[in-house]
Amino acid sequence: MPTIVFASPKGGVGKSTAAVLLATELASHGGSVTMIDADPNKLTVIDTSTENTIIDTIEKAALGTTFVVVDLEGTASMMADFAMSRADLVIIPSQGSNLDATGVVKAIRLVRSQEKAFQKKIPFAIMFTRTSPAIRTRTLQSIEAEFAQNGVPMFGVQIHERDAYRAIFAFGGTLADLDASQTANLPAARLNARPGASSAGLARAHALLAGYGFCVPVL
Ligand SMILES: Nc1ncnc2c1ncn2[C@@H]1O[C@H](COP(=O)(O)OP(=O)(O)OP(=O)(O)O)[C@@H](O)[C@H]1O
Ligand SMILES: [Mg+2]
């Protein structure tokens, strides 16, 4: 079953937050989800994997659940490479800053090198995080325009900056801790769609998520 990997060599861009939100949303739409936290610095959700075990961990999880969501550490590593090689979709979170945009370029290079190494296409898309629900800053607009010009797929949904998202980690370290009453309060789960440019890669990402019942609209 599909494996969705959150990756960025830049730390603190919102990978873990976005991964938990997506996993929770998928689960609330009826899918079973295994979340693999491959970030040794953070809470362990299902397993602490190493570069020696990550592929086995993903493959075993993919056999047993509808979705596998992998949250990678914020550095380039062999484990990140291996996890990406097994991804049906790599989501690259990025805040709307120029520094983060540089991180995105590095992340795309890592995806491309795994594509070469494993001789397979690895769909990826950028997901903007910590954006303002009220305004689209000029910096974000120019980054989006540049990515669009270069055919870099981007999700039409963004994860806004919200206290509720900061709070999710306070609920505890396991998916089981994110019970229905708590997740229901997450406005996150209602990732706000907005119109955006489409592209083949994005369409693939959309098809991947939509094809497996992910109901949040993704452009
Ligand atoms: N949408 C958001 N709204 C508010 N706070 C956020 C949001 N996304 C992330 N944060 C906060 O930003 C910090 C970094 O987020 P997070 O841990 O998700 O990033 P990360 O990319 O997983 O970091 P690392 O590379 O260290 O694993 C955390 O304190 C988190 O609570
Ligand atoms: Mg993290």
Overview of this protein structure:
The chain has eight helices and six strands; from the N terminus they run E-H-E-H-E-H-E-H-E-H-E-H-H-H. With 219 residues, it is α/β, with parallel strands linked by helices. Helix 3 (78-85) packs across helix 4. The radius of gyration is 16 Å and the shape is globular. Residues 15-16, 39, 42, 71, 74 line the site of magnesium ion.
Short description:
The protein is an alpha/beta fold. It is built from 8 helices and 6 strands. Helix 3 (78-85) crosses helix 4 (98-118).
Strand order of the largest sheet: 2-3-1-4-5-6
Determine the fraction of residues in helical runs and give it as a percent range: 40-55%
- What is the tally of beta strands? 6
**What are the distinct ligands in this entry?**
adenosine-5'-triphosphate, magnesium ion
Order of helices and strands: EHEHEHEHEHEHHH
Broad structural category: alpha/beta
Unreliably modeled segments: 172-202, 215-219
Rounded to the nearest angstrom, the radius of gyration is 16 Å
Largest sheet: 6 strands, parallel
Q: What is the molecular shape?
A: globular
pLDDT averaged residue by residue: 75
> Treating each run of at least 4 consecutive H or I residues as one helix, how many helices?
8
Which terms summarize this structure?
alpha/beta; binds adenosine-5'-triphosphate; 219 residues; single chain; binds magnesium ion; six-stranded parallel sheet; 8 helices
Record the SSE blueprint.
Elements: E1 3-6, H1 15-28, E2 33-38, H2 54-64, E3 67-72, H3 78-85, E4 89-95, H4 98-118, E5 124-131, H5 138-149, E6 159-160, H6 163-167, H7 180-184, H8 200-211
Parallel strand pairs: 1-3, 1-4, 2-3, 4-5, 5-6
Helix pairs in contact: 3-4
